[in-house]
Amino acid sequence: MDTQPEYSQDQAAAMLGSDPSLLIVDDDGPFLRRLARAMEMRGFSVETAESVAEGIAKSKARPPKYAVCDLRLGDGNGLDVIQAIRENREDTKVIVLTGYGNIATAVTAVKLGALDYLAKPADADDIFHALTQRPGEKADVPENPMSADRVRWEHIQRVYEMCERNVSETARRLNMHRRTLQRILAKRAPK
């Protein structure tokens, strides 16, 4: 992870505004500490949480202006933390980080108010840009579009989420054998 900020302290402060509070929720301790240090160097006032319960408690005690939340945490889903943040402060800019990205969860995160959805390991500058992007700014077009295998996997994941993670119902809707679907779901996403 890049720890040297791309902007000077004055530039970063101007981009962050008067409330630089940032809540980072991730159960990977070393990554959490590195990201917290990198974001402090960029002018944020950082609080950290390593679980859904801790993230919800901190978002209620002091709702942050900015938040970075891992999707899969040891005690649950990071989307619960986003929902709690939204209940306590509507103007929070939220970024979702995950090592298990799929379109269905990205759509859910955006519906809950997340600005962006970044794959781990995310660079500190990428996270800073995502948090400070102005309304109407568009992200750069990816250089490498998804492969056909990835598109298929994303479709299966979307249907699986729509069926509320019911394997039998998902297999029926996709017209595939249940065991085949279970094997596909057990694998990591293709590149």
From TrEMBL:
<dbReference type="Pfam" id="PF00072">
    <property type="entry name" value="Response_reg"/>
</dbReference>
<keyword id="KW-0238">DNA-binding</keyword>
<dbReference type="GO" id="GO:0003677">
    <property type="term" value="F:DNA binding"/>
</dbReference>
<dbReference type="InterPro" id="IPR011006">
    <property type="entry name" value="CheY-like_superfamily"/>
</dbReference>
<feature type="domain" description="Response regulatory">
    <location>
        <begin position="21"/>
        <end position="135"/>
    </location>
</feature>
<keyword id="KW-0805">Transcription regulation</keyword>
<dbReference type="InterPro" id="IPR047772">
    <property type="entry name" value="ActR_PrrA_rreg"/>
</dbReference>
<dbReference type="InterPro" id="IPR050595">
    <property type="entry name" value="Bact_response_regulator"/>
</dbReference>
<feature type="modified residue" description="4-aspartylphosphate">
    <location>
        <position position="70"/>
    </location>
</feature>
<protein>
    <submittedName>
        <fullName>ActR/PrrA/RegA family redox response regulator transcription factor</fullName>
    </submittedName>
</protein>
<keyword id="KW-0804">Transcription</keyword>
<keyword id="KW-0902">Two-component regulatory system</keyword>
<dbReference type="GO" id="GO:0000160">
    <property type="term" value="P:phosphorelay signal transduction system"/>
</dbReference>
<dbReference type="InterPro" id="IPR001789">
    <property type="entry name" value="Sig_transdc_resp-reg_receiver"/>
</dbReference>
<keyword id="KW-0597">Phosphoprotein</keyword>
